[in-house]
Specification:
By secondary structure, the protein is mainly alpha-helical. It has one domain. The chain contains 7 helices and no strands. The protein starts with 5 loop residues before the first helix and ends with a helix.
């Protein structure tokens, strides 16, 4: 019966960790990065070579400040929608960096390719789906339900970040499931838009 050596297992776990953190970046850009910093400082996560600074006090302070500001901004009426215009590219960048910072024992080309395609892609798709959901909430409720949307996104980001650090394999499966939900959400929106335009005309 074939067995998986420890180095291969470490690579798989680090990839799952990166994908889980990237998924969390799709909900909130800085929450998973802050979680990564705390986990690195506590010795629960070993950053990739060159990324050891993630577990430093200056990084923790900067990420904590950015996290608080981001969370607070999404509870300010209309500012949440304005933030969505920059949150999508920011989420892609954060997802890419999150994956690159934890994937170990891979050549730089493979690591960055994986980080950009898988990490950035997952974060971008999820963020795009949340933008769609917030837009629908704004149109249908005048923004009154955006508080609930923002709270749900924050909770999902926290849960996904925690799972990525504690149970990376499960977090990776969850990330794939969330991406499927995001794709379905975006696809259904594209299907309903032509109908809405036709009815309006």
């Amino acid at each position: 019966m074939p067995t998986i050596d420890q180095s291969t297992l470490d690579i798989v776990i680090s990839i799952c960790l990166g994908l889980g953190l990237s998924a969390a970046c799709g909900f909130r850009v800085f929450v998973p990065l802050l979680g990564l910093s705390l986990a690195a400082m506590g010795g629960y996560v070993q950053p990739a070579t060159g990324w050891e600074w993630v577990g430093s006090w200056p990084a923790l302070a900067c990420l904590a400040t950015a996290t608080v500001l981001e969370i607070a901004a999404y509870y300010i009426p209309w500012l949440d929608n304005a933030l969505d215009s920059i949150a999508t590219p920011a989420a892609v960048i954060a997802g890419t960096l999150a994956t690159a910072s934890v994937v170990t024992d891979l050549p730089p080309l493979w690591r960055w390719s994986l980080a950009a395609i898988a990490g950035g892609g997952i974060a971008g798709l999820i963020q795009a789906a949340t933008v769609t959901l917030r837009g629908a909430s704004t149109v249908t409720t005048g923004g009154l339900a955006n508080f609930l949307v923002s709270t749900g996104e924050l909770i999902l980001s926290l849960i996904t970040t925690l799972l990525a650090i504690v149970l990376p394999l499960i977090a990776a499966v969850l990330a794939v499931g969330i991406v499927v939900w995001g794709v379905v959400r975006l696809t259904s929106r594209k299907r309903t838009e032509p109908l809405s335009v036709k009815q309006a005309s």
